[in-house]
TrEMBL record:
Taxonomic classification: Bacteria, Bacillati, Actinomycetota, Actinomycetes, Micromonosporales
Keywords annotated in UniProt: Signal
Entry annotated with the keyword Signal: yes
Keyword set includes Nucleus: no
InterPro entries from the UniProt entry: DUF1501, TAT_signal
PANTHER family per record: BLL7424 PROTEIN, DUF1501 DOMAIN-CONTAINING PROTEIN
Signal sequence region: 1-19
Name of the featured protein: Uncharacterized protein (DUF1501 family)
One Pfam family, short name: DUF1501
């Protein structure tokens, strides 16, 4: 069977071609970009992995003010007892589902920025996430803060990569755009051999460009399935029929974040010159029955980050990697009638990695001095991203974040 006949028989050649064109960069092309680097043994340039928690993570049940009597009083069915939390100091502790982050805290490689938000909060998921990803709280703009950095540095396509299903606005500039390489592998019917698909993905002289992209995308998806299989079941034989992780929800679903971070690990180990990676975990819109659902999600987050940090410790490039974990907003202080919490405002941001100076930054918002029942932000989110631009990407924050006038937060040590 020729490759052209296989693609036509599959009935999805056009869709694969469109996917390849939309992404602009395949996994194979991304991995081949490592050949342009002198050597992966030196670690290469500093890198940042941006982890977005979609839905609005409940910050009060993530970094818990267990010693504040107002915490238990506001949400008696959702509050953790002081003996349950993983204590950070005499006032704050981590959710019991975050033991890996607690170990990073003990190793002084976890920074927690408290009370992060933006002026004039908007409780809309879409508007709030747009503000975080564009770093423009005053008015809507069409470019993301990473995208503007791509513009300003005339960066190549592989400089910023998202392993999410769609390209986030954060990576969109005016003249430059990040690459979107979906983490989902390829599920093959029993009568199709994975080696055949890989073979059909090889280039043929004189073939149309879109046909070449379509075929190559199949091989990339099989490769991704192998990576995910090895991540979830180390030491087993890769299986091209591996099911893609199910979308995470508040009460169940697969660990999408582990799959995405597995691909980040693969790229960093190979010496790919990407400096910004974007990954995500969804399901944090916990309006009802929050306790069990939120714990499920936080365990996924903790497991994924712990495994990723362990993998980074084993590769030279991992010594230059900083991870930033944020969500579009926190939740209301008081629980609702459905044992959940509604859209709120400020919340914590996690920063972790070998270059991180561990500790607490900013101030925990008061539970007594509220703004219409919401926490008052004590740290502008632009200070976090501005510090990432200056300390990780060696860029001037004021050039890429309009209105930025804050000082840098000292949670990143000099290179």
């Amino acid at each position: 069977m020729t490759r052209r006949r296989f693609l036509l028989a599959s009935g999805v050649a056009g869709g694969a071609a469109l996917a390849a064109g939309a992404a602009g960069l395949s996994l194979a092309e991304l991995l081949r970009s490592a050949d342009r680097e002198p050597s992966p043994t030196s670690g290469g340039p500093d890198k940042v992995v941006l982890v977005t928690l979609y839905g609005g993570n409940d910050g009060l049940n993530t970094v818990i003010p267990y010693a504040d009597p107002g915490y238990a009083a506001a949400r008696p069915e959702l509050a953790y007892q002081p003996e349950e939390v993983l204590r950070l100091d005499d006032a704050l502790g981590l959710n019991p589902m975050l033991p890996g982050l607690r170990r990073m805290w003990d190793d002084k490689r976890l920074a927690i920025v408290l009370g992060v938000g933006y002026p004039r909060p908007d409780r809309s998921h879409f508007r709030s996430m747009d503000i975080w990803q564009t770093a423009s709280p005053a008015e809507p703009v069409t470019t993301g803060w990473v995208g503007r950095w791509l513009d300003g540095t005339n960066a190549p396509l592989e400089a910023a990569v998202s392993f999410e299903p769609v390209l986030p606005p954060m990576l969109v500039g005016r003249s430059r755009i990040g690459a979107c390489v979906s983490y989902r592998g390829l599920s093959l019917p029993s009568w199709v051999d994975a080696d055949l698909v890989t073979a059909l993905g090889r280039a043929e002289p004189g073939e149309p460009e879109m046909q070449r992209h379509a075929a190559a995308s199949y091989g990339d998806l099989v490769t991704m399935a192998h990576v995910l299989q090895e991540t979830e079941h180390p030491g087993t034989t890769p299986d091209a029929t591996l099911d893609a992780p199910a979308a995470a929800t508040g009460t169940g679903g697969g660990n999408e974040l582990t799959a995405q971070l597995a691909l980040v690990t693969r790229c960093i180990e190979a010496g790919v010159p990407t400096q910004v990676y974007s990954v995500s975990l969804g399901g944090f819109d916990t309006h009802a029955e929050e306790l069990s659902g939120h714990e499920f999600l936080l365990k996924q987050l903790d497991d994924a980050l712990t495994n990723f940090v362990a993998a980074m410790a084993r590769t030279p490039g991992g010594q230059n990697v900083t991870v930033v974990v944020y969500s579009e907003f926190g939740r209301r202080v008081r629980a609702n009638a459905s044992d959940g919490t509604d859209h709120g405002t400020a919340g914590p941001v996690f920063v972790l990695g070998p270059r991180v100076v561990g500790g607490l930054y900013g101030e925990q918002p008061s539970l007594l001095d509220l703004d219409d029942g919401d926490l008052k932000a004590s740290t502008d989110f632009r200070a976090v991203f501005g510090t990432v631009l200056a300390s990780v990407l060696q860029a001037d924050p004021a050039r890429y974040i309009e209105g930025y006038g804050g000082s840098l937060l000292p949670f990143i040590s000099p290179s």
